[in-house]
Amino acid sequence: GYEETNGQVNKPEAEAVIKRLKELLNDPEYKETKEDGESRPITFGIISLLGKEQSKYITKLIGEEIDSKEIEKRNIVCGDPYVFQGDERDVILLSMVKAPDLQNPEKTITPYSASKKEYKQRINVAMSRAKNKMILFHSISKDTLTNPNDLRKMILDWFYNHKAEERKAGLQRVREEVERGRASEFEYEVAKIIINKGYNVIPQYEVANYRIDMVIQGENSKLAIECDGDQYHNNFDKWHEDIERQQILERSGWQFWRVTGSSFYKHKEKALTSLWQTLDELQIHPDA
Q1: pLDDT band at 154; cut points 50, 70, 90
Q2: How many C-beta atoms lie closer than 10 Å to residue 154's C-beta?
Q3: How far is residue 18 from each of residues 8, 47, 61, 73, measured CA to CA in Å?
Q4: Measuring CA to CA, which residue among 243, 253, 244, 245 is closest to residue 221?
Q5: CA distance 173 to 115
Q6: pTM check: above 0.70
Q7: What is the CATH number of domain 173-281?
Q8: 273-281 CB contacts, 8 Å cutoff, 24+ apart
Q9: φ, ψ for residue 259 (rounded to 5)?
Q10: Which of the four pLDDT bands, split at 50, 70 and 90, describes residue 35?
Q11: How far lies 93's CA from each of 28, 42, 140, 210, 250, in Å?
C-alpha cells in the first residue's frame, strides 16, 4: 500500500482490512464462541495505529459494504487505540497504516520511537485488545525498518518471529525485577535457562500477600520456583519463614520446586534435571 501525503490514509491497506473482515464474517468458524457456557457471536474490532483519518476511511467502507445488522450483532467498531481503551474484541484487525509516501516514495520513514511514552501507550493498548486473535496489516516490509527502538519494527518482529520475541520479553521482565531489587542475579540465571527452553515464566508472582520468586505457567497448571541463594546458608530464620510460606501455599494447591545457589553454580544442568521431570509430570510444556 501507500500513504497519501499529509492525509494519513492508506487506502489499499484499508481495503485489504475490509476484504479480510468480510471473509471472516462469512467463515463458519468465526460465527460463534462460548462464554460462561453460553454461545454468543464472535466480535470484531479494527484498530488504526496512525491518526484518525485511516479509521474514518475504514468506518466508511464498513458502512458501505457490511450490513448494519451484522455490524451491530458482531459489535464491529473501528478507531484508534484509545477508542478501545478498557474494551476488547474476540478478533482484532490491526492496520499499521504507515507506508511509503505516494508523492515521495523515497522519503525516509520516521521511527515510531519507543522512548516516547505516548507512543508506547498507544501500542500497548492496541496490542492487548484481542481476546483470541490479532491480524496485522502492514505496507512496510519488516526489513525496511532497521532502528531497534522503532515500535513498528518491534510489532513486525513480534508477528514474524513470535517465539523469539516472546522469550526476549520474558527475559526483560526478569531483568527489570533484578534492577528493582526484587530479584537476584541467581534468579535471572535460572529464569534465563527456563525461558530459553520455551517456558512461560512470570517473575515475582504475587499470591495471598506472598511473593514467589517465579512461576512457570502452563496451559492448565503452574509450578512455583524458589531460588535459595547464599543468604540461606547464614540465615536460618529467613529459610524457615520461606518454608512456612511454602507450606501455607501448598495447602492451597500450589506445588513448589526449589534450587540452591551452590548446587546450581556447581552443575547447572544436573541441578535442573528434576525441574524438567516435574514439569513433564504437571504437563507443563514449552511454548504452550
Answers
A1: confident
A2: 21
A3: 18, 12, 7, 17
A4: 253
A5: 17
A6: no
A7: 3.40.960
A8: 275/194, 275/225, 278/223, 279/199, 279/216, 279/218, 279/223
A9: -140, 140
A10: confident
A11: 18, 13, 16, 39, 42
Which range (9-13, 213-217, 269-273) has the least confidence? 9-13
Residue 60 has pLDDT above 60, yes or no: yes
Q: What is 156-186 written as a DSSP string?
A: HHHHHSHHHHHHHHHHHHHHHHHHTTSS-HH
Distance of alpha carbon 134 from alpha carbon 146, whole angstroms? 24
**Residue boundaries of the structural domains of the chain:** 11-160, 173-281
Report, as an integer, the average pLDDT of 25-44: 93
* Site of grid cell 504452550: 288
Grid cell listed for 186: 541467581
Confidence of residue 31 (pLDDT cuts 50, 70, 90): very high
Mean local confidence (pLDDT), 178-193 = 95
Q: For the domain 11-160, what is the CATH superfamily, name and number?
A: P-loop containing nucleotide triphosphate hydrolases (3.40.50.300)
pLDDT at 164 over 90: no
Q: All 3 cell numbers of residue 264?
A: 546450581
- Whether 100 shows a pLDDT value over 50: the answer reads yes
Q: Does residue 104 register a pLDDT over 70?
A: no
Dihedral, CA of residue 121, residue 126, residue 130 and residue 134, to nearest 10: -140
Contact call for residues 57 and 18 (beta carbons, < 8 A): no
Q: Which amino acid is at 168?
A: K
Cell matching residue 223: 509450578
| Alpha-carbon dihedral 17, 18, 23, 25, rounded to 10 degrees | 110
